[in-house]
């Protein structure tokens, strides 16, 4: 039967646990074969991966943690898990049939057998670009939505600061904040990204943190009356400077710490006294705890996209062989917008 054909399956494995900055040599492209079938009587789903996601959190999973993290470490010699947009090839699950388009957790390979279909979502708006489901309509989009509305609790007129603001999450937080009626400033690592924030994403102001000698002074310049909401994607020195500039009862949504992921000894935070004196609330969050609100988020975001209220930028690498370079590039600021890898177009 054609459905049970055996085909070549290229995949990217982790060769070793990583310390410091990851390199392409920490990963390897290998080729095996896979039978396009699901085990008889199982509820598994076999998918062909069309797009693979590159996300900063993946760096943490490359580490051999002494204490367990919120998600398991990657296992050397095994295929690297990631989010993907995929097409169902064969299914033993009643909710999925061959030809269905889905997004969710699969792996860095051409074909994946999903034994836990609760980790995938059916795509409800296939006329939109499928790549949207790894960005604005996928995990980064839900992260932005949940982190801003559920954690930050914005009010019209709030002063909002976003670090790593041109990334997959930051660009959306900024636009959601503008829709809410907030004043929005972002930081990014190049003049090109700063210009993107102000022209394409509608931020009120933005600055290149690499050109600032004093981050505290930069934030005082941009927020002379202080910050109500800091959406933190980087941690480190930027978090320290933001704490100095928070207003009374400000909120800090801790989304990511990309400035710390490649350090063996993480930087400390010195300005915690501001949390007490200004009654600042700092709250971390994990997007997986918000997947229950996905359908509500999806419909709201689709409406914004169709009405032109939300725009987005993607950085697409072609071919699974370019997955290691695309992933490593995240930590050198090479990408602009959501980084993904196109594996197949149909």
TrEMBL record:
Family annotation (Pfam families): ADH_N_2, ADH_zinc_N
Molecular-function annotations in GO: 2-alkenal reductase [NAD(P)H] activity
Domain Enoyl reductase (ER), first and last residues per copy: 25-341
InterPro entries, per the entry: ADH-like_C, ADH_N_2, ER, GroES-like_sf, MDR_fam, NAD(P)-bd_dom_sf
Record carries keyword Oxidoreductase: yes
UniProt keyword list: Oxidoreductase
Claim: Oxidoreductase is one of the keywords in the record: yes
Record field: transmembrane: none
Subunit structure: Homodimer.
The name this protein goes by in its record: Enoyl reductase (ER) domain-containing protein
Species in which this protein is naturally found: Triticum aestivum (Wheat)
Taxon lineage: Eukaryota, Viridiplantae, Streptophyta, Embryophyta, Tracheophyta
This protein's encoding gene: LOC123048489
């Amino acid at each position: 039967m054609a459905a049970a054909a055996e085909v070549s399956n290229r995949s990217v494995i982790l060769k070793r646990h990583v310390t410091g900055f990851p390199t392409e040599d920490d990963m390897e492209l290998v080729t095996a074969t896979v039978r396009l079938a699901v085990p008889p009587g199982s509820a598994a789903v076999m998918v062909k991966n069309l797009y693979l996601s590159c996300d900063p959190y993946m760096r943490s999973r490359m580490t051999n943690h002494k204490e367990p993290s919120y998600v398991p470490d990657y296992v050397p010699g095994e295929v690297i898990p990631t989010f993907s947009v995929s097409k169902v090839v064969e299914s033993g699950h009643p909710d999925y049939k061959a030809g269905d388009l889905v997004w969710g957790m699969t792996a860095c390979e051409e074909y994946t057998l999903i034994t836990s279909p609760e980790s995938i979502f059916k795509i409800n708006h296939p006329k939109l670009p499928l790549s949207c489901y790894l960005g604005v309509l996928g995990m980064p989009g839900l992260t932005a939505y949940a982190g801003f509305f559920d954690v930050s609790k914005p009010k019209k007129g709030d002063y909002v600061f976003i670090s790593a603001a041109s990334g997959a999450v930051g660009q959306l937080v900024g636009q959601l904040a503008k829709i809410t009626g907030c004043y929005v400033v972002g930081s990014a690592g190049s003049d090109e990204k700063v210009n993107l924030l102000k022209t394409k994403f509608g931020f009120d102001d933005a600055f290149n943190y690499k050109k600032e000698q004093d981050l505290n002074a930069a934030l005082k310049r941009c927020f002379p009356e202080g910050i109500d909401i800091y959406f933190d994607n980087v941690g480190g020195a930027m978090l320290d400077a933001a704490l100095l500039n928070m207003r009374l009862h400000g909120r800090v949504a801790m989304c990511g710490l990309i400035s710390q992921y490649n350090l063996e000894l993480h930087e400390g935070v010195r300005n915690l006294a501001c949390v007490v004196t200004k009654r600042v609330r700092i709250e971390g969050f994990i997007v997986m705890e918000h997947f229950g609100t996905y359908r509500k988020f999806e419909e709201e975001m689709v409406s914004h996209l169709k009405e032109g209220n939300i725009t987005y930028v993607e950085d697409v690498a072609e071919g699974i062989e370019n997955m290691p370079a695309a992933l490593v590039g995240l930590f050198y600021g090479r990408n602009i917008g959501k980084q993904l890898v196109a594996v197949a177009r149909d």
